[in-house]
Design goal:
This protein is α+β, with helices and mostly antiparallel strands. The protein has one domain (about 35-265, about 285-290): 2-Layer Sandwich (Muramoyl-pentapeptide Carboxypeptidase, domain 2). It contains seven helices and 13 strands. The chain has helices spanning about 35-40, 85-100, 150-155, 175-185, 195-205, 250-260, 290-295; strands at about 50-55, 55-60, 65, 70, 75, 85, 110, 135-140, 160, 165-170, 190-195, 215-220, 225-230. The protein has a four-stranded mixed β-sheet with strand order 8-13-11-12.
Length: about 300
């Protein structure tokens, strides 16, 4: 039996993929608003690591927790309990943090949201980050890695944009270029989202190999952090990859984003007879892959 899945998609960040096939074992169907059920989980499921579904419509079994503090990183906003991910994601972050610590002016990384303990829709803030394969990395360069829990809740991230994202501001430097290049060169990375002006700045500054720029995608917001999305791990048969981005370095596309910010195109004509747009509804358990019912704790 195939899964009936309703996914509201955008062309770039959320995309659509094929439906997820059913698992062989019996699934105990759960009902309700998915974000409420997954948002109430405090620990990972006791399963082998398994991302299920799509980045904006899925969950993760057997997630691993990123240590709150490591030699070259600190997890931020600990009260959210979103420092969980697939083991490949955790390994990626730890390896990238070591490279970050070698960049002058950085002690490592401040790590934002990854996923909830069992993934799924979040109670606030994100539509993706549902399979443990997305991670937000703060753009600010850490000067120390001994922040208290209170400091990690209250410290402000630093914006890198000006002119609405058309350009980088004075906080941006060569270290950001080096960090994003290192992240993009990891073969596990599918794409990285950041504001358009940063992509254009990197396009203009890169004088060597430009192939990694293909993975850097302009997107709304993303000027306090960059968003890394990993490919489905090998053997994860119920994980849906996002469609690949077009070939090339993507710089012309980013330049168009910048032009549209500086000189917004005229709005499209409004059809007075068109139905009124409906607000996006919360995903229910019926929208998610059916295996996600088994990832949740048994009902009490």
């Amino acid at each position: 039996m195939r899964i009936v899945s309703v996914v509201l998609c955008s062309l770039l960040l959320t995309g659509c993929g094929p439906k997820v096939a059913s698992v062989a074992e019996k699934v105990v169907a759960r009902v309700g608003i998915a974000k409420s059920l997954f948002g109430s989980e405090t620990t990972a499921s006791r399963d082998a690591p398994n991302p299920l579904g799509f980045y904006t419509n899925g969950c993760i079994a057997g997630a691993e927790q990123l240590a709150e503090t490591g030699p070259t990183w600190q997890a931020m906003r600990l009260s959210r309990n979103r420092n969980w991910g697939h083991p490949e994601t955790i390994d990626f972050i730890e390896r990238l943090s070591k490279k970050a610590a070698q960049i002058p002016g950085r002690e490592g990384l401040y790590v934002g949201d990854i996923s909830q303990p069992r993934g799924g829709p979040m109670t606030s803030g994100h539509r993706s980050h549902q399979m443990g394969l997305d991670a937000d990395i703060w753009l600010v360069a850490p000067k120390r890695l001994n922040l208290t829990r209170t400091e990690r809740e209250n410290i402000s991230a630093t914006s890198m944009r000006r002119a609405g994202g058309a350009y980088t501001n004075s906080n941006w430097n060569e270290g950001h270029h080096a960090l994003l290049k290192a992240a993009a060169q990891d073969p596990r990375v599918a794409r990285i989202f950041i504001f358009p002006g940063a992509k254009v700045a990197m396009c203009n500054a890169e004088k060597g190999d430009r192939s990694w720029l293909n993975k850097i995608r302009p997107w709304y917001g993303h000027h306090y952090h960059f968003h890394v999305r990993l490919k489905c791990p090998a053997g994860a048969k119920w994980c849906e990859d996002q469609d690949p981005q077009p070939a090339g370095d993507g710089c012309a596309d980013a330049e168009q984003w910048v032009r549209d910010i500086l000189n917004p195109p005229p709005p499209k004509p409004v059809d007075p007879n068109a139905p009124k747009p409906q607000p996006r509804r919360d995903l229910t358990m019926a929208d998610l892959p059916q295996q996600c019912s088994n990832v949740l704790s048994p009902p009490r």
